[in-house]
Amino acid sequence: MTKKRKAAKASRKKTSRTRLSAALSAKQTPKQRVAMLAQAPLAVCESDTNMQAVLGVLRNTAEPTEVRLAAMDTMATAAFSVVAFEPCRNDYIAALREMSQDPSPEIRESALGLLAGEKDGFAQKKLLEGLKSPEKALVRPEKALQLLGYDVHAESYAVARDIVENPPSDTARREALRLLSADARSAPLFEKLLRDKNEKREIRQISASALQALNPTKLQDHARALLLDDSDYDDIRATSLEAIEQFGDPAHVAKDSDLLQSVERLSTTAPPKYKKGAKHFLSKYTR
Amino acid sequence: MKVELQINNSASPQARFVGWAPSPCRIRVTNPMGTLLPTTSVQLRSVSASGGGAVVFRKDTAGAFAKTLTLTVPTNGTTVSFFVAGKFGQPSTTNGDVRIEARARLNLLSAALTSVGFVPLMVRIRKNAESLTTGERDRFVAAMAQLNNQGAGRFADFRNMHTDVSSPQAHGAPAFLPWHRTYLLDLERELQAIDASVALPYWRFDQPAPNLFTPDFLGVADANGTVQFSATNPLQFWTTDGVQGVVRGPRNNWDPTTQPGPTVITEAQTLAIGTAYPAFRTMEGNPHGTAHTRWDGFIRSIGTAAKDPLFFLLHCNVDRLWAKWQRQNSRFDPAQAASYDSNPANPIGHNLTDTMWPWNGVTGAPRPPTAPGGPLAVSPCVSAPGPQPRVQSSLDYQGVVNALSREGFDYDDIRFA
Amino acid sequence: MHALHLSATSSEEEFAGYVDAIAAAPGCRGRLLDLLREDHPVYDQRGGATVSRMRGWVLVALARGPVSDAALPFLLEELDTGVDPYLVAAAARALRSYPHPRPALAPFVMRALEQIRYRDDPVSFDEYGAYATSTSATGPVREILETLAWLGPHARGVLAKLQSVARSRGLAKQATAAADRALDAIHTAIGNESVDTDSCCELPRSVISACSWPRTDRRDANAIESLPFEDHDGTAVTFEAVFRGHPTIVVFFYTRCDNPLKCSLTVTKLARVQRLLAERGLADRIHTAAITYDPGFDSAKRLAAYGRDRAVRMDGRHRMLRATADVNALRAHFRLGVNFIESLVNRHRVEAYVLDAQGRLAASFERLLWDESAIVERAYELLTESTEDIHAAGPRADDRALPPRSDSPAVGVLASAGVAFFPKCAVCWATYVSMFGVAGLERIPFPAWLEPVLAIVMAINLAFAWLRGWATGRMHGPLLVSAGAAAILASRAAPAWERLGLSGVGLVLVGSMMCAVDSRRRGAERVLATHPGWIDRTRQKAGLRVTPVSLNRLAGSWNLAISCLTTSVRRSTRRRSAAGEAR
To answer: Where are the domains positioned within chain B?
Structure first.
């Protein structure tokens, strides 16, 4: 490396250290410290001292939560530089596991979110424990289900089915259904939900997407039936139309005059945002 | 008399796309009826539809561009070369919204020019996602959804190219920017194979994005961070790793439609990081890494980031920043030391002359165990960078140093010269 | 020790207690290996992370005592294709309890380091189910480096790679110290000790045979011959239709596998196998199949996409398959190393198989990454198996090398013909042809161009027989030859009439001999009478003792030789193409 480049590199490192020092200093306001931490993510990879300093802020429950979250973000940002981050990973994962049981709910949720993205067994175990025994829950059930969805091998289908039957909240039920969209056994459930006009739009939309994944033939049949049913909601008919347009057999659709007539009606009677989709669909088949 | 015009030296309609960088073209007389002389004078001009793109011309590989160009064309069918480029600041919004018209004086008694041929084309440019027309947005989203095909489409390869296992090929070392530039180019060409009018848009993460995070575009996160799409948005069927949906929630009460990414450094700050590549590439931390970690969800971690369509718009902006820095500092030539960070200690895949995984098909340590996707997708418009690109081939993306290095994409706010 | 029957309902605590107990009990450590079987009932209906915890604890238990050769494949498997930091760390630790460090282990350990170094998550072996939350914990990189130090001089083959890793300064602080210790240990040991070259660069034979062997118990596939599949095109096929009539290389996978070193790499390697087969001109005769463990989710569309994305050739001879019923029967037949949580795989081993032309398991490649050329060779051996071997009910001979064979069909045919036509009596000619022609032709690859040639020759043979019959006035011979030829042709038409071919050979044999061994010289003399002096002139020129009788015998033996050759070739042809392209 040339002298000039070495000097430039040393200068950058010095700048990073300066910023990091400022971030660690209690003399700065939390907002200033957050800004300083955000400007020096790669500094944590430069030395063990830097990394330990940032992790120290993260672990320190006496620090303001926003500063601790910024420290976690700094580590997560640095983690993108995989090669440079190599010496840091061991300590980083250990710290995240520790933080997943922190008194602060935001810290816990952030830490578990990062660990779930790594398919960490520790995080999965804690999330499942929390769903089975709410008193042990570290995050809201809908968040736990969402995070378990990062890994299809996470042993979560049974608990998700229980939550669909007995949901603590609508959001939790929705997340449980989204998780089950990869479960082959749940195809009949999704069929039922899709055709239930009393279900919310997002539930029926999840069901349509899940059924397309698990049993595409059934979904195409149901989508067609939904489109032919003028009494059903426009939004679910629009989703059905999208499913047929994306995944249907064009030759089959072109010959289906009932379907095309139904879409024709949709293109004239539906609200403007759905009319456009219907017209686009028709333009493909009625040239 | 009739003439034929070829864009990018090809008669194929698939090649009728240009950017700000000059595209080689040619003209020849196909029907000399009405002319008796061995040559004829033909004027080329750009005709734009309302709101459409515009092009400019020049005869040679150097020199200024002009709105029209007059060529002397043999009537025996011999071709004559010239160059076309999009008029900076006036990109197309639909395919064929600009055409090159060739006119000639057919009546010796009159000075009037008569049209003797035309070719429709598109000035296809990567734009700020905020500025896309509804049509551009819908075409992009439809192409992405089709590429995904609910998990069974070619998008699976792109997802598998960006995982924990493969990450050392592209992160934390000098080829971070070249690798991702090539990655985006590969994806964009696959999208163009579905709809040739599509160009990858970018997300200005240092600005509010009220048009991007909407149900009809990349969706709106609910309180739990699950992204909701409208009933007409084909992305509602988005599936990766066998699981449907996108998880992406803004952190710390940030509203991306009204606020820039918190603590993400601005474009001006990014461009001021340094004039040499070793300094500039630290932007991998901030703004790049910071833009990733302003969110909860897929995009927050390297192993899951490519599951979210937003990832590609984020990186398109990262690439645009690099391109802008290159333009600002004239850093297109790999032979120039400041253009890259060459170091004997660079890991494999991060040296200028290294081929890049996965396009090189090399597997087994120190490369990842498999190479999804195969060679880089081809373009009907350009030949660069080839099926197995090297790190250095991504630097001269506009063909500034060598016209043959032009990769066929441009950004709306980075001119050619 | 009190026996405990572990099952899917056993708690993790019960499991851990059992493992600890048998690890400590004298003479019971061998039971630990049984717990490493993927299909052990205790892993049924457990999540992936749970299975990792459980298996890891078994490996940790193994590490507490001497590790046997039988355990080595499980450790090497984890180092070869593992991506779970806990399992890799445990395997590296357990390897240090193996009593025979040897150079062959070093590449596995080094490969594990290269694969896991960017996922050096902290692990704890203090108690079952513990996850490290402290920075003083160990991790896979540290464990691997300690194992390299343990290998000492045996790791000299990977010294350069280890130096490169150490120089990259990418290791964590504690791992850097471990790397320095490993380098010192290797350097010091190289300097002070002589490496036992007898310990060789090979793994113990028992280890190799635990991972890759020809199956000596080729159970028939009758139980699953009607097992229904759907292929990548959505075509319904049965086991029999896909796998009978030709050797097949079979791998298992599933599209939701998140270990790129297993399923994704397995299917990618299958594509390389297909290219190797094509290069050797065997792609139409050795088929391939990739069968999913997860048929409920892996639809035809998903199979096709997965194969396409890995450049797999997919057509009637090379398929991606899902079983549409009787999945348990399939698992039992192949003795698959897999377990499930509901329908989703929770753990599986790398496994590839070669089936013979009857659909029976003839070779297995398990746990370790198999070599594409080796599996092609196994399949090729099956292609050239004799009829006797295929129909043998008993165990096949062990994996001793088969005698070398010529790959060139022309050489085989010419050799047979050369021997057949070496001057001898007619009966000897027939005998030689039968032995070398029939036996030899059936064992070498049959070139398609030979069949019409022999058909023409057979017609010539028939014509000669009739000419002789008319000449001698005795028609029995020609009639028998005709009947024999008809029977041979009929045996070609349908598999059910195969045995007619043998009868045809017999008829041609008898008829040709009758034509050849003609005691009635009148026919010969009549021929000779029209060409006076020809024999004498020929005899004088050639110096041969050629008589009318020997001429007839020559002609007759020619007839017989050609008939036998033709019959054997036709039988071989028909058998090879009978299975054809199953639809």
So the answer is: 2-123, 129-405
Q: State the nearest Cα–Cα gap between A100 and chain C, in angstroms.
A: 10
Q: Do B160 and C168 touch (CB under 8 A)?
A: no
Region C93-111: what's the mean pLDDT? Answer: 95
CATH superfamily of domain region B129-405 = Di-copper center containing domain from catechol oxidase (1.10.1280.10)
- What is the C-alpha to C-alpha distance for residues B141 and A89, in angstroms, rounded to an integer? 36
**How close does chain C come to A187, measured CA to CA in Å?**
11
pLDDT for the residue C218: 83
Cross-chain Cβ contact A93/C122 below 8 Å = yes
Higher-pLDDT residue of C413 and B313 is B313
Taking CB atoms and an 8 Å limit, are A246 and B234 in contact across chains?
Answer: yes
Taking contacts as CB-CB distances below 8 angstroms, the residues of chain A near C343 are 184-185
Tell me, which fold does domain B2-123 have in CATH?
A: Immunoglobulin-like (2.60.40)
- Domain boundaries of chain C, sorted by first residue: 12-207, 210-400, 409-582
Integer angstrom CA distances of residue A163 from A159, A179, B226, C172:
6, 11, 18, 42
**B contacts of A277 (beta carbons < 8 Å):** 232
Rounded Cα distance, B361 and B371, in Å: 5
Q: Which helix (H) or strand (E) holds C291?
A: strand C287-292
Shortest distance between the Cα of A73 and any Cα of chain C, in A, equals 19
Question: What architecture does CATH give domain A107-180?
Answer: Alpha Horseshoe (1.25)
Cβ <8 Å between C114 and B366: yes
List A195's β-bridge partners, or say none: none
* Cβ atoms of residues B308 and B292 within 8 Å: no
C56 touching chain A per CB within 8 A: no
What are phi and psi for residue B132, nearest 5 degrees? -70, 145
Q: Does B374 touch chain C (CB under 8 A)?
A: yes
H/E element holding C177? helix C173-192
User: Which chain A residues contact residue C164 at CB under 8 A?
Assistant: none
Chain B environment of A41 (Cβ under 8 Å): 285-286, 289-290
Measured CA to CA in angstroms, residue B101 lies from B76, B108, C15, C278 at distances of 20, 20, 80, 52
- Interval C122-142 mean pLDDT: 91
Does the pLDDT of residue A211 top 90, yes or no?
yes
3-state secondary structure of A235: helix
A13 touches chain C (CB under 8 A): no
Quote the DSSP letter at residue B97.
Answer: S
**Superfamily per CATH, domain C210-400:** Glutaredoxin (3.40.30.10)
Pick from A78, A150, A236: CB nearest B285: A78
Which pLDDT band, with edges at 50, 70 and 90, does C403 fall under?
Answer: very low
Question: Would an 8 Å CB–CB cutoff place B214 in contact with chain A?
Answer: no
Domain ranges of chain A: 13-85, 107-180, 183-287
Contact yes or no for A184 and C131 at CB 8 A:
no
- Contacts B–C by Cβ distance under 8 A: 53
Contact status of A31 with chain B (Cβ, < 8 Å): no
ipTM of the complex: 0.93
Q: How far apart are CA C292 and CA C260, in angstroms?
A: 16
Going by C-beta distance under 8 Å and a sequence separation of 6 or more, which residues neighbour residue C225?
C238, C239, C240, C244, C359
Task: For chains A and C, count residue pairs whose Cβ atoms are closer than 8 Å.
Answer: 105
Compare CB distances from B171 to A1, A34, A83 and report the shortest one's residue: A83
Q: Reduced to 3 states, what is the DSSP secondary structure of residue B239?
A: strand
- What is d(CA C227, CA C291) in angstroms, rounded to the nearest whole number? 13
Whether residue A96 has pLDDT greater than 70: yes
Q: Which residue type sits at C116?
A: I
Is the pLDDT score of A111 beyond 80? Answer: yes
Question: In a 10 Å sphere around its CB, with 0-12 CB exposed, 13-18 middle and 19+ buried, how is residue C309 labelled?
Answer: buried
* CA distance linking residue B334 with residue C156, whole number of Å: 39
